């Protein structure tokens, strides 16, 4: 319960008499422009959030038993009984003589009785709290009836989760990836043929498909698969397998892992392969707050700690509204502590591994043959820092620099979202290599390989570029392509198809050197093909679906609004006799008498009421679209000179008979049939979309705050004026409030109550007080 904003200026004509307008700023342009691609992307994300919010409202808001009894969700049994007693007495059919009112009161009484029966029963209440109304009709067996309320709720949640897992196979969380690398340069690169001719090698003519197939070389074949097994609310087990083949050699392994989420945004994972070579990896990631995070990873390349573990630490922090800076430090596995790991296999030359100090020298296998010496990967230490995020408009960037002893590189990566189904990306990487000076003669030939005092020279090693794109085929399927080329690097064209966690990649080496013809055919043609498919097929279908989703959502909201409005009219008729009776009783004992109560856009009423002589005691016709008179409802709920209504997740609209009148004022002024008849380009204009989005957005902001749609979704700037305001800013200004004026012990009180605040009247401290 809060006072209103600072008092309005009484000399301002815009604040006298009528309600201030909250329409979006009007454009100076005479035409209604189409939405840009980036605005369509934002619109689609916003509508998806609104649909999700609306589904939650239907699930949790339409039959909210707590709202029916006007009690908080943590109410005890005594509070439930008291609320039921008051509500049932108010809506009992026998208390009403009018047949229409009596019939409607009977339906409300049945709802009140159903709510009481569910909430007073600890088992049914736990089922309702856990899974909603469907839990009441469930045949779940939850164990002993002597369990506590908390245990009952936990058991229902567990049962509900198991039922969901049976119905939805996706909860297995299976992920797989297949990569098949091929060398097709003999078929695609004219430059390769010229190089071979210069060296006296002539390529046999390829006349048949069999000849072409025979010259294709397999460079790489790798597969990965992982699925997750839930072991509890916070603990998951995972089984993963991988195989990698290059040339005639291959490796494979199976891994086991455990993942534990100790808190939202905090995850710890331990994994280890079963087969040789055995390693162990520990990962921990944590979201410190909304603007920072850290990741830690440690990998032991040998369970006996023959080599030092590689440790990587990454910290990220918001550096601006849309950019995140990050710093990553990697130790590698070539460091040592004192004498420990000083002679590890990752620190000495191969020649040194043959000396007498090598512990593996005399080791033999079961057949009596010398055991193979394991080759450990040499991982150099490095430092990486950079920024990532939204650079401008709908362009995402990732800029990073990596520094290590053997190599340094600087990379730039940009992604441009063309529309909601198609994006293009490009990148540029400069790689530098460090070489030991030839003139350097070491004092000790058995020196350590990572001596930083060794003089080195650094030179440009390679420049690599990549250009590609990603296209959404359906809601769950994506197709991507990428061409990589540069100086001192091969040309590779990659295709990637992904669907619900399953990924197939096909990298093709099309030329060992830069080839202009390959650049043309494998860049321009795929881009033109993808853009054409997106523009003429995918995009029109998706926009048509989005258009229908918007109209269906607004129509559903308006139907709900109409029903609530009619319901409020019935309730006022029903409560009028009770209101008159309580008004007479409270007046006789100088108790709580509500003179006026309006719900909606009431800020100007609060300002005008400072002057008692000019106060408006009833709404004008123009006011009724922005505020409703709720005096009868609130007066009927007064008991013993008190009006106490606890805050509810649905706000003040949880009070019986309350609804948001501002909904109708933002309804788009378009005929729905004409909108359906328009093509997609004619529909997605700034004026049309702004009206619908404003309307839907108001509902999502004013009704139960189950999820923060408007605060977390992208800014929907569908207004085209130079003084642009986002939809979020426009809606926030007109959130409904309750204006109430009452007398208590010969004193007049006035106040404004926020939509999600509790009502506790009479107030100990008031905003304005007048002695009568």
TrEMBL record:
UniProt keyword annotations, A-Z: Chaperone, Membrane, Transmembrane, Transmembrane helix
The record, for Pfam families, names: DnaJ (PF00226), DnaJ-like_C11_C (PF11875), DNAJC11_beta-barrel (PF22774)
GO cellular component terms, alphabetically, are:
membrane; mitochondrion
Primary localization class, coarse: membrane
Q: Sorted alphabetically, which Gene3D superfamilies does this protein's record hold?
A: DnaJ domain
- Cellular compartment(s): Membrane
| J domain segment(s) | 64-132
Q: Which residues form the signal peptide?
A: none
Q: Which residues cross the membrane?
A: 519-537
Q: Where is this region: Disordered?
A: 1-34, 347-374
BP terms from Gene Ontology? cristae formation
Q: Which InterPro entries match?
A: DnaJ-like_C11_C, DnaJ_domain, DnaJ_domain_CS, DNAJC11-like_beta-barrel, J_dom_sf, Mito_inner_membrane_organizer
What is the name attached to this protein's record?
Putative J domain-containing protein
Q: What is the lineage of its organism?
A: Eukaryota, Fungi, Fungi incertae sedis, Zoopagomycota, Kickxellomycotina
């Amino acid at each position: 319960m809060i006072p209103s904003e600072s008092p309005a200026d009484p000399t301002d004509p815009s604040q006298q008499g009528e309600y201030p307008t909250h329409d979006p700023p009007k454009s100076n342009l005479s035409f209604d422009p189409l939405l840009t691609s980036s605005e369509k992307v934002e619109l689609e994300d916003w509508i998806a959030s609104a649909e999700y919010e609306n589904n939650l409202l239907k699930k949790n808001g339409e039959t909210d038993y707590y709202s029916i009894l006007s009690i908080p969700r943590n109410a005890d049994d005594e509070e439930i009984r008291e609320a039921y007693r008051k509500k049932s007495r108010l809506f009992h059919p026998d208390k009403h003589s009018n047949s229409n009112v009596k019939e409607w009161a009977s339906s409300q009484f049945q709802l009140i009785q159903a709510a009481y029966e569910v909430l007073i029963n600890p088992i049914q209440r736990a089922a309702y709290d856990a899974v909603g109304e469907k839990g009441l009709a469930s045949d779940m067996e939850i164990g002993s009836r002597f369990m506590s309320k908390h245990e009952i709720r936990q058991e229902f949640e567990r049962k509900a989760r198991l039922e969901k897992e049976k119905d939805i196979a996706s909860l297995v969380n299976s992920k797989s990836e297949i990569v098949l690398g091929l060398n097709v340069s003999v078929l695609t690169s004219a430059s390769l043929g010229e190089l071979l001719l210069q060296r006296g090698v002539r390529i046999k003519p390829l006349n048949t498909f069999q000849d072409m197939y025979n010259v294709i070389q397999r460079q790489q074949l790798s597969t990965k698969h992982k699925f997750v097994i839930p072991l509890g609310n916070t603990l998951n087990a995972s089984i993963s397998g991988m195989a990698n083949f290059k040339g005639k050699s291959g490796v494979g392994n199976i891994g086991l892992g455990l993942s534990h989420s100790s808190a939202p945004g905090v995850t710890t994972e331990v994994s280890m392969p079963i087969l040789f070579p055995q390693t162990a990896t520990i990962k921990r990631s944590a979201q410190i707050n909304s603007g920072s995070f850290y990741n830690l990873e440690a990998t032991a390349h040998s369970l006996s700690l023959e080599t030092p573990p590689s440790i990587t630490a990454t910290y990220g922090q918001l550096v601006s509204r849309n950019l995140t800076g990050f710093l990553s430090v990697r130790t590698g596995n070539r460091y040592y502590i004192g004498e420990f790991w000083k002679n590890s296999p990752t620190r000495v030359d191969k020649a040194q591994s043959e000396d007498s100090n090598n512990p593996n020298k005399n080791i033999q296998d079961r057949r009596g043959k010398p055991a193979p010496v394991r080759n450990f990967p040499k991982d150099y230490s490095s430092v990486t820092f950079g920024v990532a995020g939204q650079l401008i408009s709908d362009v995402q960037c990732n800029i990073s620099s990596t520094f290590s002893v053997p190599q340094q590189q600087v990379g730039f990566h940009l992604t441009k979202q063309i529309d909601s189904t198609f994006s293009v990306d490009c990148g540029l990487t400069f790689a530098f290599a460090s070489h030991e000076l030839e003139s350097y003669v070491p004092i000790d030939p058995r020196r350590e390989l990572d001596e930083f005092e060794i003089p080195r020279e650094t030179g440009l090693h390679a420049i690599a570029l990549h250009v590609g794109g990603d296209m959404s085929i359906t809601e769950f399927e994506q197709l991507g392509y990428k061409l990589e080329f540069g100086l001192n690097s091969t040309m590779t064209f990659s295709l990637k198809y992904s669907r619900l966690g399953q990924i197939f990649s096909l990298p093709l080496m099309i030329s060992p050197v830069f080839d202009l013809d390959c650049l043309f055919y494998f860049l321009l043609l795929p881009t033109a093909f993808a853009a054409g498919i997106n523009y003429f097929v995918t995009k029109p279908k998706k926009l048509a679906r989005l258009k229908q989703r918007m109209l269906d959502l607004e129509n559903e909201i308006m139907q709900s609004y109409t029903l609530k409005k009619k319901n409020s009219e019935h309730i006022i008729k029903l409560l009028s006799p009770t209101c008159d009776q309580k008004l007479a009783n409270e007046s006789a004992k100088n108790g709580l008498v509500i003179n006026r109560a309006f719900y909606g856009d009431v800020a100007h009423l609060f300002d005008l009421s400072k002057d008692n002589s000019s106060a408006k005691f009833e709404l004008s016709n123009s006011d009724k679209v922005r505020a409703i008179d709720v005096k009868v409802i609130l007066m009927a709920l007064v008991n013993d000179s008190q009006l106490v209504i606890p805050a509810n997740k649905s706000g003040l609209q949880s009070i019986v008979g309350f609804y948001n009148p501002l909904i109708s004022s933002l309804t788009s002024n378009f005929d729905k049939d004409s909108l359906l008849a328009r093509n997609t380009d004619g529909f997605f204009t700034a004026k049309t979309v702004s009206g619908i989005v404003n309307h839907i957005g108001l509902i999502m902001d004013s009704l139960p705050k189950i999820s923060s749609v408007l605060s977390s979704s992208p800014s929907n700037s569908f207004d085209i004026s130079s003084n642009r305001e986002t939809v979020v800013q426009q809606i926030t200004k007109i959130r409904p409030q309750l204006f109430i004026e009452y007398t208590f012990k010969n004193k007049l009180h006035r106040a404004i109550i926020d939509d999600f605040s509790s009502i506790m009247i009479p107030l100990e401290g008031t905003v304005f007080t007048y002695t009568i």
